[in-house]
Amino acid sequence: MCQIIQNKTIEVGEVAENGLRLWSARFVYDQALNAHNVIETSLQRLKVRASNLLGWTMTLMSGLIIAFSLQEKHQFYLLLMLTPLFITSYLCVRVLQSTPWNYYNLSASEMDKLQGKFESELEIIEHLILDINEVNDRNSVALKNVRNYMQWAWIAFLSIPTLGLLLLVFGSFYKQTDNFWINRFSRSNDLDTKLVEGLEKEDSIP
Residue 7: helix, strand or coil by DSSP? Predict the structure, then answer.
């Protein structure tokens, strides 16, 4: 539609008296449909990341299990290192599991029913907007749950270097403490031995 503004005739598009509500409904419908596609794409990306992370985790687990079977002294530390890997694997599997998902599609028979129920394009589009928003709300909840699993999986995976560093520091401290007490115990035994030898010498003097 055209209007005269400042002695100039310009195109202003649809107006409230003629077509503006229909134009708005079409715009909102396109936005809702685009949001539906974005949510579905986000889910697929999370599943791809979970698949990649699961592959890295299984590789590390295989290496640690082999080391666990060959190493006899530090099996406890290896078991601690395996714990976050098991957690990461479990969370990745939860992400890759079948997600309760609602797909939006409209069959020809459903469209016939809508045409019998409503009398205009505007009413049909506004009804479809409600349907898409309901589907998007359900999918958003499912996507949030999947995203939470993925975030905790990354946290568990990234905790492995921190755990390894703590075990290294603890092992070094434990070794130094153990050596300290061993040396002290050895010195005490040496003093006791010398004392006993001295007493034996005194007893042997006539």
Answer: coil
